């Protein structure tokens, strides 16, 4: 190409095709005389019976009918439809339809807010007269969704568009189904996993004013025509942060910018708000509305703490479940109630260790031990995806006695099958519910009582609302809080409270059992009481002492290269230059928490920046310019530099 002998052309292949369906349109008017007349014409034909069904359906519904629906109701009706078309009694057209179509409408009058919900709704509306953003802090099971529905209904009745953001569409199937049933065909559901043709359909529908969009984080980039309300459900959830692939963004912050462009209002909702949102609400930047009672006659579950050390001194030694918890789960089964068992690690165990030489299988691309998955007897790296069949013996010393360290959903499932052989046990994690259909099927089985015990990762903490769940067990609270991150306790609190909230959503009080080892006791006490305010107050004091959000903004810079010396040298140059200009705001550099991922050696530093837009803008500009300068140097060819503002 450089010498001009060949040239490279790029061509965008347009493969979009609108979805169409055969629609039947009657060619006779809607009177009994007309129906009698056309029935006379067909009553002697071979398809007389089916033809009469088709005509009667057209007359009864008094609208266009889908041929597919008639074929389902009256098998063999296609031949009758063709016969009626040839006689000129009906017209059959291929019409463009939406790829998403909700068929079950709910009467809006069927749902009424309680007095407490009505008061909360009124408070939100009053706040939004003066402020652009309101935070609804409602405990689990308080009925936040019903308030959302009424607020959306009012905005849509004025001809405006509404964006309803959820953390992950696949994990909120039940919520999406309820929204679709409530609003019918006014709903569009958008997320990154839908097909290209469907995306194009939705793009045009929303651009033309489709009233309601339910979407994951990527829906903030849709071409809204008249957007006036954005509701962000579970606003604390870190699934709203996009890390891979770039661009990195937080859907909550992006949605707020989108609202400014459209002069729209934003409602944030959560039982466990992010510290940043709650801090802004307490300091008057957002309106704050509290909804601290469960809907109807439901009450918060009773929470009991179990020290894992007691298991080792009981008849259940070697088990992952205390005798108290096993007996309680057995009692739930006898009473026909369902249980959820929460363990926040998929796979069988975090690693296999040789009992002789302490060998562990490590990833060839990353500096991590590989996770063992028993169902296919393989090791899998959860960072780069490399997998390998498990070794039958230690490759270092030949020992066949390999010990499992750490705990995953598969191992818990294996133990529960032994403990409760009569129960129907299912597992909900990334390995079992990768697709939309698998997730919908799992939720349907749970809803219809075909699952007695559901084991799951944090998937089970989101969007599950079933009255028959009587017990939630958190197998290891310590596993949630042992992360070298300033948000680790905040996330642990949020996860434990959210998953606990799946229990006792009817008049009967639910039960929650939390097994722990050495986790901070005050954190567990706050979870036991669902005391968000108490936890926030204590944790905020620590954040202030060490200058962490919400008292500052963070910018994380990660430099990587296949050559560790080049990666280290590039980071040293970057850090030295930034420290000359910004001094103590620069923290680091240091090797990455995982020093090598996908054969890239990583070094990182953090910038703590005051919450002042002018300073933040200047630092972001300096970081961008310096990153481009280093990447342009020939010594650092192949270097990667990733900048993440507000890392999660």
Quote the distance from N terminus to C terminus: 44 Å
Return the average pLDDT rounded to an integer.
83
Determine the strand fraction and express it as a percent band.
15-25%
Under the CATH scheme, which architecture of the largest domain would be assigned? 3-Layer(aba) Sandwich
State the helical fraction: 25-40%
CATH topology of the largest domain: Rossmann fold
Physical arrangement of strands within the biggest beta sheet: 6-7-5-8-11-4-12
Query: CATH first level of the largest domain: which class?
Result: Alpha Beta
Number of helices: 20
Radius of gyration: 29 Å
Name the structural class.
Answer: alpha/beta
The biggest sheet amounts to: 7 strands, parallel
Total domains: 4
Coarse shape? globular
Question: Care to count the β-strands?
Answer: 27
Low-confidence stretches: 99-109
Describe the structure.
- By secondary structure, the protein is of the alpha/beta class.
- The strands form seven sheets. Strands 6-7-5-8-11-4-12 form a seven-stranded parallel beta sheet, sandwiched between helices.
- The chain is globular, with a radius of gyration of 29 Å.
- The model is unreliable at 99-109 (pLDDT under 50).
Summarize the structure in short.
The protein has 648 residues and is an alpha/beta fold. It contains 20 helices and 27 strands.
Walk me through the topology:
Layout: E1 20-26, H1 32-42, H2 48-61, E2 65-66, H3 67-73, H4 77-86, E3 90-96, H5 115-130, E4 133-138, H6 144-157, E5 161-165, H7 173-183, E6 187-190, H8 196-207, E7 212-215, E8 227-233, E9 241-242, E10 249-250, H9 251-262, E11 265-270, H10 275-282, E12 287-291, E13 302-307, H11 309-312, H12 323-334, E14 338-342, E15 351-354, E16 371-373, E17 378-380, E18 387-389, E19 402-405, H13 409-419, E20 425-428, H14 436-447, E21 453-456, E22 469-474, H15 478-481, H16 488-500, E23 511-516, H17 521-529, H18 532-546, E24 553-561, H19 564-582, E25 586-597, E26 600-609, H20 613-632, E27 640-645
Parallel strand pairs: 4-11, 4-12, 5-7, 5-8, 6-7, 8-11, 13-23, 14-21, 14-22, 20-21, 22-23
Antiparallel strand pairs: 1-2, 1-3, 9-10, 15-19, 16-17, 17-18, 24-26, 24-27, 25-26
Helix pairs in contact: 1-2, 2-4, 5-6, 16-17, 19-20
């Amino acid at each position: 190409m450089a010498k001009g002998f060949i040239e490279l052309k790029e061509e965008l292949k347009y493969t979009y095709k609108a979805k169409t369906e055969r629609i039947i349109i009657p060619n006779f008017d809607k009177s009994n005389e007309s129906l009698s007349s056309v029935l006379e014409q067909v009553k002697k034909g071979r398809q007389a019976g089916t033809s009469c069904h088709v005509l009667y359906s057209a007359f009864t519904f008094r609208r266009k009918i889908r041929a597919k629906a008639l074929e389902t109701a009256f098998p063999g009706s296609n031949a009758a439809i063709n016969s009626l078309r040839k006689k000129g009694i009906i017209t059959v057209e291929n019409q463009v339809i939406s790829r998403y179509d909700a068929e079950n409408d709910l009467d809006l009058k069927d749902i009424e807010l309680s007095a407490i919900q009505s008061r909360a709704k009124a408070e939100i509306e009053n706040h939004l007269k003066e402020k652009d953003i309101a935070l609804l802090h409602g405990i689990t099971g308080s009925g936040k969704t019903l308030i959302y529905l009424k607020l959306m209904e009012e905005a849509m009745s004025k001809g405006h568009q509404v964006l309803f953001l959820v953390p992950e569409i696949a994990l909120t199937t039940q919520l999406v189904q309820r929204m679709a049933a409530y609003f019918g065909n006014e709903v569009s559901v958008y997320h990154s996993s839908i097909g290209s043709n469907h995306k194009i359909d939705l793009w045009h529908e929303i651009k033309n004013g489709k009233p309601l969009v339910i979407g994951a984080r990527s829906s903030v980039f849709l071409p809204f025509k008249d957007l006036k309300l954005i509701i962000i459900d579970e606003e604390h959830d870190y699934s709203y942060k996009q890390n891979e692939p770039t661009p990195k963004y937080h859907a909550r912050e992006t949605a707020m910018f989108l609202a400014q462009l459209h002069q729209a209002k934003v409602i944030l909702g959560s039982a466990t708000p992010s510290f940043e949102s709650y801090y802004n609400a307490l300091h008057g930047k957002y309106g704050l509305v509290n909804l601290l009672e469960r809907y109807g006659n439901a009450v918060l579950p009773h929470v009991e703490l179990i020290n894992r050390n007691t298991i080792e001194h009981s008849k259940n030694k070697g088990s992952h479940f205390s005798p108290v918890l096993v007996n309680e789960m057995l009692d739930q089964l006898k009473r026909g109630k369902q249980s959820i068992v929460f363990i926040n690690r998929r796979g069988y165990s975090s690693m296999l260790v040789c009992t002789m030489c302490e060998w562990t299988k490590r990833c060839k691309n990353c500096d991590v031990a590989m996770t063992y998955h028993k169902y296919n007897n393989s090791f899998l790296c959860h960072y780069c995806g490399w997998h390998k069949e498990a070794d039958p013996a230690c490759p270092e010393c030949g020992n066949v006695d390999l010990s499992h360290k750490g705990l995953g959903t598969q191992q818990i499932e294996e133990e529960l099958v032994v403990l409760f052989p009569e129960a129907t046990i299912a597992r909900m994690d990334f390995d079992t519910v990768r697709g939309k259909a698998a997730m919908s099927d799992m939720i349907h089985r749970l809803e219809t009582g075909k699952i007695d015990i559901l084991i799951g990762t944090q998937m089970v903490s989101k969007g599950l609302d079933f009255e028959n769940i009587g017990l939630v067990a958190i197998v290891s609270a310590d596993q949630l809080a042992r992360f070298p991150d300033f948000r680790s306790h905040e996330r642990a609190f949020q996860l434990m409270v959210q998953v606990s909230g799946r229990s006792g959503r009817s008049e009967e009080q639910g039960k929650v059992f939390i097994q722990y080892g050495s986790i901070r006791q005050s954190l567990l006490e706050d979870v036991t009481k669902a005391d968000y305010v108490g936890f926030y107050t204590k944790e905020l004091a620590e954040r202030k002492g060490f200058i962490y959000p919400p008292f500052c903004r963070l910018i994380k810079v990660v430099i990587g290269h296949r050559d560790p010396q080049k990666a280290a040298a590039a980071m040293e140059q970057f850090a030295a230059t930034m420290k000359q200009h910004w001094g103590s705001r620069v923290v680091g550099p240091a090797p990455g928490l995982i020093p090598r991922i996908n054969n890239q050696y990583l070094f990182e530093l953090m910038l703590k920046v005051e919450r002042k837009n002018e300073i933040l803008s200047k630092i972001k500009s300096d970081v961008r310019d310096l990153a481009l300068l280093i990447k342009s140097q020939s010594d650092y060819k192949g270097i990667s530099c990733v900048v993440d503002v507000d890392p999660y």
